[in-house]
Specification:
Blueprint lengths: L1 H17 L3 E9 L2 E8 L7 H16 L5 E4 L5 H13 L6
Parallel strand pairs: 2-3
Antiparallel strand pairs: 1-2
Helix pairs in contact: 1-2
């Protein structure tokens, strides 16, 4: 089933996400619930939940009926955290 899910993601979801500088990674599948992470520019995007519900869930559930729901694992990317740290260090006026 995971091969089928990855094929749907490759053919129907990733091309759209790549156009926005993003990516999707499957984190796991249990009891019909597919858990995914959005990466790149899509990570932490305000539209991430909508992307998951209207694009990923719709495409995967339609093609793989065993998947009943797609859940987005939301977390802040390490790149974004490092950018925030750099900004905060720069705004301290040289103080450590």
């Amino acid at each position: 089933m995971m091969e089928q899910i990855e094929r749907v993601l490759d053919e129907r979801v990733r091309p759209y996400l790549h156009g926005h500088g993003g990516e999707v990674k499957v984190a796991g599948l249990e009891d019909g619930v597919l858990r995914v992470r959005l990466l790149g520019q899509c990570s932490g995007c305000p539209s991430a939940t909508i992307t998951t519900e209207q694009l990923i869930q719709e495409e995967v559930c339609q093609a793989v009926p065993e998947v009943k729901q797609v859940v987005l694992i939301q977390e802040v990317s390490e790149d974004l955290l490092e950018q925030a740290r750099a900004i905060l260090r720069g705004n301290r006026g040289g103080q450590a």
